[in-house]
Amino acid sequence: MSEGSESAALAELAKRRGFFFGSSEAYGGVGGFYTYGPQGAALKSNVEEAWRERFAVQEGNLEIEAPTIMPEPVFEASGHLDGFDDMLVECAECGESHRADHLIEDNSDLEDAETLSLEAAAEEISALELACPNCGADLAGQSVESFNLMFETNIGPGSTTPGYLRPETAQGIFVEFPRIKEYARNQLPFGVTQIGRAYRNEISPRKNIVRTREFTQAELEHFIDPERDEADLSAVEDVEVLLYPATEQEKDDGEYIETTIGEAVEEGIIANAWIGYFLGVAQEWYETVGVDMDRFRFRQHLAGERAHYSADCWDAESEVDGDWIEIAGFSYRSDYDLSKHGEYGDDDFTVFQQYDEPKTVERAVVDPDMATLGPEFGAQAADVAEALETLAERDPDAFDADEVTLDIDGEEVTVETDVANFAVETQTEAGEHITPHVVEPSFGVDRTVYTLLAHAYETDEVDGEERSFLSLSPAVAPTNVGVFPLVSNVEELVTLADDVAEELRAAGFAVVYDDSGSIGRRYRRQDEVGTPFCVTIDRDGLEGDRKDTVTIRERDSGRQVRVPVDGLVQTLVGLRAGTTSFDDVLDENEVVEA
Questions:
Q1: Separation between Cα atoms, residue 501 and residue 474, nearest integer Å
Q2: How high is the pLDDT of residue 4?
Q3: DSSP-assigned letter for residue 26
Q4: What is the CATH number of the domain that holds 97?
Q5: How many structural domains does the chain have?
Q6: Helix, strand or coil, per DSSP, at residue 230
Q7: Given 115, 133, 148, which residue is the final one in a domain?
Q8: CA 278 to CA 54: how far, in whole Å?
């Protein structure tokens, strides 16, 4: 398809066949919000379940479900209040707001405009002579501003308790870490997953469900001790990946690197082995659920793209309509999140790590004389005592002087060292409290769904007519099997078809029963929604040598095979799981001419 036509064809199919469509259309619609129809909801649910199976169940991780609204202090601690912004440029003529970096990228060869400063973005808009996409007015000279993406609300009546809809599911995991660590028996490493809604007040939503204001994330926060926990790459070291490192992106003739996870980590292309591990797991998972690996890559963030706390970050990207879409991010977040919540929150965000053998150490300690501090500092006495303890840990040499200077809520106070009762003690320690580091694979579920639909959309010709179909993986297809009685006026056919459909549903298959129209039209309807197999009950299966048999039709090739009814469930279980190929079924049974 030509560039742009893939998205247009997909949007038309999605609306007509019930995958997704704009929400609240009866009231004019609201940009950036979509409703998943019956097919789309089932596909999305299957993708979520496939992710849960691989990243929660198989990895032995925990799963939680946290609220989507959280109080303001959470986002003050996380940095979202001050730093969760996009670039906004407003048209002076019509008042329409646009995302400045997207305008620049859409009209130039620059692929990372989000790394520009606000001033540099304004200069680019002027240099490119960009116009408002809404009314055509010149945008040159318009200032580019920061726009915070969070939706604000109030918790309870009045406005005394401000809150925000979460812009990512991760904060729910970090905030609840003090309790979750107990469920993990305080044993690092451990992972916590969450699948849920997140909200971002996008300036200019676009590309259907790719950039929306409400979306679903599937995130894993993997907590490690960076000094003791090493990633085991044995399961993924031979996984082949297509990498686009920052060093290649910065070259005029930069190229992709085709390598394996093991080689990429060994050569330092992927600097962190934990990131390498999850890239390998993700590569195999994406292939399982049906992403076209010829249209898939891992791209490393440039320095200007990375969050300040992220030591390294890679995006999984899929190609749709000539554009690369970020569908997942893999970030090493160090101890930033837990340290910030430990600083702002009133709980313990550390984990006690026991040494293999007890250690004898010298420890600087103070035992402040509160009888002196109390009268001198009044209500600040406890803060002064705490500041003395902190200073002893950080700079014990400061107590060599006659007095020490402390910062108490921005005010400098001095304390005589004799009052601190400073000493260096020899202590035996069984372990230490550490703030775990975090490795985060974060998946966009909606973008994965969009990618699967785009990569699965195909056309061919059947019986002289053009056919469009979705070559979805059986692992995620919204419907597993279509069951059709060849005609609806023969009682024996209808009875057997009903029995087959009931047996398949009992075995866990999502089944659609259709007895309306010609068999060819019924096949086409199922092809368009990606149903991988159709079972047809015909007269030949009621009598003679073929008694108690049905035909299975494969969606992509249109090939058909006749199989015994009593082995149908087992055959379809193997086909859905991928343990049996359709060629295997053809070899063992009677091929039916289409």
A1: 17
A2: 61
A3: G
A4: 3.30.40.230
A5: 4
A6: coil
A7: 148
A8: 11
Range of the domain at 416: 356-431
How far apart, in whole angstroms, are the C-alpha atoms of residue 297 and residue 315?
8
- Please give the Cα distance from 165 to 156 (Å, whole number): 14
Q: Is-contact 497 485, C-beta < 8 A?
A: yes
Question: Within this chain, do residues 254 and 340 fall inside the same structural domain, yes or no?
Answer: yes
Q: What pLDDT is attached to residue 206?
A: 83
For residue 594, what pLDDT is reported?
A: 66
Q: What are phi and psi of 261, to 5 degrees?
A: -60, -45
Give the model's pLDDT for residue 309: 73
Contact 87, 216 (CB under 8 A): no
Provide the CATH number for the domain around residue 17.
3.30.930.10
Distance CA 588, CA 564 (A): 11
Please check whether residue 60 lies inside any domain of the structure: yes
d(CA 584, CA 577): 14
Please give the model's pTM, rounded to 2 decimal places.
Answer: 0.86
What is the separation, in whole angstroms, between the first and last Cα of the chain?
A: 28
The stretches in the chain having pLDDT less than 50 are: 1-3
Kindly state whether residues 10 and 45 are assigned to the same domain.
yes
b/e 66-97 (16+ beta carbons within 10 angstroms → b): bebebebebbebbebbeebebbbbbbeeeeee
Residue type present at position 150: M
Tally of CB atoms within 10 A around 254: 13
Decide if 345 contacts 403 (C-beta within 8 A).
Answer: no
**Which residues make Cβ contacts (< 8 Å) with residue 174, sequence separation at least 6?**
78, 221, 337, 338, 341, 438
Measured in whole angstroms, the distance separating CA 3 from the mean position of its chain's CA atoms is 26
Q: Which amino acid is at 148?
A: N
Q: Has residue 78 been placed in a domain?
A: no
Shared domain for 263 and 369, answered yes or no, is no
CA 393 vs. chain centroid, Å, equals: 40
Residue (of 111, 117, 129) closest to 87 by Cα position: 117
Same domain, 409 and 488: no
456 contacts 243 by C-beta, under 8 angstroms: no
d(CA 179, CA 187) in angstroms, rounded, equals 13
Q: Which of 218, 285, 217, 240 is nearest to 473 (CA)?
A: 285
Q: Is residue 80 part of a domain?
A: no
Three-class HEC string of 272-320:
CHHHHHHHHHHHHHHHHHCCCHHHEEEEECCCCCCCCCCCEEEEEEEEE
Residue 236's Cβ-side half-sphere holds a number of Cα atoms within 13 Å equal to 20
127 in the same domain as 251: no
- Which pLDDT does position 305 carry in this prediction? 82
CB neighbour class for 413 (10 Å; exposed up to 12, middle 13-18, buried from 19): middle
- Burial level of 158, CB count in 10 A (0-12/13-18/19+)? exposed
* The token pair that represents 410 in the structure block: 């921005």
Contact 54, 282 (CB under 8 A): no
72: nearest Cα among 146, 171, 157: 171
Cβ atoms 128, 107 nearer than 8 A: yes
